[in-house]
Amino acid sequence: MAVDATKLPNTAPAVEDVGTIPQWKLMVRRFRKSKLSVAGLIMLIVLYTLMFLSDFIAPYQHNRIDSNYAWAPPSQLGFANGKVVTYALKQTLDEVRFEWIYAPDLENPIPVEFFVQGYEYRLLGFIPSKLHLFGVPDGSQINLIGADKDGKDVFSRLLKGSQISLTLGFVGVLISVIIGSIVGTASGYFGGAIDNIIQRLIELLRSFPDIPLFLGLAAALPMGVPVEVRFFLITIIIAMIGWTGLAREVRAKVMAFRASDYTSAAIAAGASHWHVITRHLIPNAMSHIIVVGTLAIPGAIGSETALSFLGLGILPPAVSWGVMLRDAQTIEAITNYPWMLLPVGVLIIAVLSFYLLGDGVRDAVDPYA
Amino acid sequence: MTTEQMAPNSSINLTSHDDVVRVEDLKVSFYTQLGVVRALNGVSFNIPRGRVLGIVGESGCGKSITGLSIMQLVVGAGRTEAGRIMFREYAGQEPPVNILDYGKNSPEMRKIRGNNISMIFQEPMSSLNPCYTIGNQIEEAILLHQTNDKSEASKRAIEVLNKVGMPNPARIAASYPHELSGGMRQRAMIAMALSCNPTLLIADEPTTALDVTTEAQILDLMRGLQSEIGTSIMFITHNMGVVAQMCDEVAVMYMGRVVERATVDDIFYEPRHPYTISLLQSIPRLGRRSGKLASIEGSVPDPYSTTPGCSFHPRCPVAIKGLCDTIEPQETIVDAAKGHTVRCHLNS
Amino acid sequence: MTTDDMLLEVRGLKKHFPIRTGLMRRVTGMVKAVDGINFHIHKGETLGLVGESGCGKSTAGRAILRLHEPTAGEIIFNDPVLGKIDVTQADRETMMKIRPNMQIIFQDPFTSLNPRLTVGQIVGEPLEIQHRASGSELSDRVAELLNEVGIRPENMTRYPHAFSGGQRQRIGIARALALNPSLIICDEPVSALDVSIQAQVLNLLDELQAKYGMAYLFIGHDLSVIEHISDRVAVMYVGYIVEMAKTDKLYFSPKHPYTEALLNAIPKADPRLRTRPERLLGDVPSPANPPSGCYFHPRCRYAKEICSVERPPLTDIGDEHYVACHFARELSLTGVQALSDIKLEMPAAKNV
């Protein structure tokens, strides 16, 4: 043996052996270098944490009506006797415009209690609890960001609405990722007639204009079904429309990896289709799938909001951000009760965070793109 | 200190004749996320007027960056940290200008680029615009630097295409880059580069992407044009065969330094630097089959690391412990008359 | 030479790629990448397959392994267990048994290794696929293989990105070696490497062949490298083998005008050999639309009328020298001039 391995220089750097770090860890490192994307990720963690704890944080049930507080403005907070306080509202009737005018009764502070008992709910869906982060004694009400036309607490509704708005897009994309990956991989790997049929089918699906297709499908949904079923059906609609684009991207990637030399080497050694797909194609395409998926979520969230806004998605009494925006449809509502537009702000934050995250993941996964 | 016994770098003045470009102690670094890459670590050489200088070395030795630096085309994270690039357009012109004094996008630099110094690359497709005909692109260069007369420009474009051996220059002028073969595109690139009669042509691996029969055509062409027009050429390549066929003088680069500089005969028949010798030993020699090729142990160190002493010492078969691994060798003269210099302790 | 010595016989191998256009993906033409080639490889020898880009040499190599399904022809492989088998007709099960004996090394060291797998997983993959080893036996074998190609076995847990081009190429060789093949297709294994690394890899291939006695089909475009490594050389032009002979014969007394032109075109690494021989004019024709008759005739300076009409078959003119030229026996062509014998000595270490 003329080549003596021991004589070859060991290229391992002394401090840290970069060579033993798997690729995904290198990607995590690259991701962390992008500050905006990390900010997006943190923002999303905050939003989803709030979503999971929404019943605990919300002081009221999302559809609790109190006509005494119709269009009540955001409660004013103060500090008295070492405690956080809010103030009761004095209602006066504007006799010219025939509207209630609210003014805080500064003489009459109401202490804000923390960890109070309130309505009953199941935390994370299975822990029964009555505990709420904060609340005020019965007989008065706290509306951190105002109330709507029925006196429903907007803050509580925003939290409750996030449960649908943030999960529906996510689950919808998850389903389309699964469908898209399977179909895309099959199309790219086997090629030929299978590929041809799948591609024509995708073209057919994509040639329908998005919005009318959405509307048509949503209008066909049965009206009288429980919220959970409707939620599920809308998720399916979003997934049905989303998977085609993903399948195309996965197909392109799989075709490239299929033609790569390491795949050829495996085939030359006698590898089965299953081995090639699971060992070489999927792991390499995975990072790309995650990127495309992440960047697809904001679109799906937007779709849900649009559908619900148009009255074809989630229907009251269930609440999502789109449903809430229906109450902000009129100029009157926007000018007099601007807090009704807050769901838009939260929506923008969520969507922007997903885009920032997706961009960062893409740069981390494929730094040369 | 051993360094003091050696001739200081700046005192070497081997070239009594006229140089087009003198690169002096050029240092270029790239600041990347993973660290600083010292691409050029003090490169010095001269390009004599009317001659072909070969810059030879392995990938990552800095030969392409040197070419781009002269054109001031180093982009991105690259920074010129020290050095001068003295350019003299005409023989006897006093004094030469330092290219690095001009801003990258200054009018002076734009005048030098393309007009006085032009460059051709390995992949002609990347420097030809696919949306314009070959003729348009050559005319554009001529209109920019030479004349304002459009018909004159198109006449000259066809002339220069004819000069680079295009079979039917008028038809080629009217075709788009994708309609031409790789060899034809490279000819078109050369035509474009020569359209303004540059003082210096920088050719960065112009034949590497071509097949051997096409490569031979292009090398013949460049040789022929060079002796006809008298343009100085800086020929960057990794192929020792191309060096032997094309160049009058050679600078061998390793890790951002010129380690040996000599006439082409001296490089091939009397090389002095162990790297040059190893390089020549490791190429299979046509018509001379030997059992085993001599190879250089190990590989080029990663670009982020710095090597103390002579950058070649970890792979050098004759490195001296305690000297080569601690003290960087200075450029020393082997033969002043022929301009043969070497950076090696064994030759000082 | 006995026939038992024959490891691989390729007869009339064709690989045509359809050109599809339009919505209905109608076949409007054929790229005849490999257009009826014949050659053979003896056990333990190296056959160099040389040609310019697009001549079909890589396609031919991959067709032998059925990485591209051949369009026509026979590929008779002499399997150590199964005996002579036509690879093109073998079913899945038979292929599974033949495959370990025919392996491949690739050109690009940066795309031939899966970036998600460790070096140990890469080299061990063929053994896993063929169920040859598992567990500690597998890692022992992988360590042995890595040692064999000059990579420290400790590097098993590292990923390809930690290695230089030359080291990656060694890892690729270890993978090809894992199943003890009797034939390795080397698809331009040194073309992407720097000259100093190229020599290391060529030496390694030589040593491995001396030790294990496998045959190589060495595909390349650098005639100096091909000359160095090959026992016999086949020259390809537009999907067709035009000449095949023992290396020295082919280089010093070529019989096909294309071989002559190719040899003359090599830039010789010797500044005293600056001759300006007759250059080949024009470009290589497209394999989708080749000329009539002998594909080389439009560029051939010896071409006569018959050359544009009839395609010459590859014929043996004696001593395993095959030429596809109507005038193979009449032409006197010039081969390579040996480069001057340059004595290269390292400077002697002196006392400092």
What features would you describe in this structure?
The complex is a heterotrimer of chains A (369), B (348) and C (352). Chain A has helices spanning 23-33, 35-52, 54-57, 154-190, 192-207, 210-219, 227-258, 261-268, 273-309, 321-326, 331-336, 342-365; strands at 77-80, 83-94, 99-111, 113-123, 127-135. The radius of gyration of chain A is 27 Å and the shape is elongated. In chain A, 57% of the residues lie in helices and 13% in strands. The two termini of chain B are 14 Å apart. Chain C contains nine helices and twelve strands. Chain C has helices at residues 57-64, 92-98, 119-129, 135-148, 165-177, 195-212, 223-229, 247-252, 257-265, and strands at 6-21, 26-42, 46-50, 72-79, 83-86, 102-105, 183-187, 215-220, 232-237, 240-246, 315-316, 322-323. In chain C, a hairpin with a 3-residue loop joins strand 4 (72-79) and strand 5. The model of chain C has no long low-confidence stretch (mean pLDDT 89). Chains in contact: A-B, A-C, B-C. The interface between B and C is large, with 62 and 59 residues.
List keywords for this structure.
heterotrimer, A: 369 residues, alpha+beta, two-stranded antiparallel sheet, 12 helices, elongated, C: 352 residues, alpha/beta, eight-stranded mixed beta sheet, four-stranded antiparallel beta sheet, 9 helices, 12 strands, 26% helix
